[in-house]
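thread: overnight batch results

M.L. [08:02]
morning all. the overnight job finished for the chain we discussed friday. pasting input first so we're all looking at the same thing
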Amino acid sequence: MRRLAVLLCLLVAAPVLAQGARITDADVHAFVARQEQAWNAGDFDRYFAGFTSGARFTDQAYVGDKPPVPYGTSTLAQAKAQARRAAARSRERAEVRRIEIAADGRSAKVTSRVGSAVTEKGRTRRLCASRVQTLTLDGGRLRSTGQTDTYVNCRGG
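M.L. [08:03]
and the structure it wrote out:
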């Protein structure tokens, strides 16, 4: 009985897809939910464990009708360091808007709408972005090759 409980905990804590398995919409939704939970808990080790070692993080913004203006791109190590400095006061909520699974089922592009509340010096500001990630099967685990956050005007106040 104890072995069964330990096995169940391991399966829940580290979701692994069987070799030859295909990524499903449910896998993608669960991945995004785990990201959000880890970020909001300030558990950056768990959050960044969901990325490949070569992951890249790009921030950009829309300015009127013009193409997005990039702010910069970070490596995994740089993104971790930035998160540790700034994100302890940030909470995110992601809503998956679109999932495109590759024909072979081994990768998926996911687009989410992300709302963030950043509290600093007693003031909270709202940020809204469209986040695009490519998820791949890496050693049987679903991981992101990085993310591009395109900041937009928040709607609805």
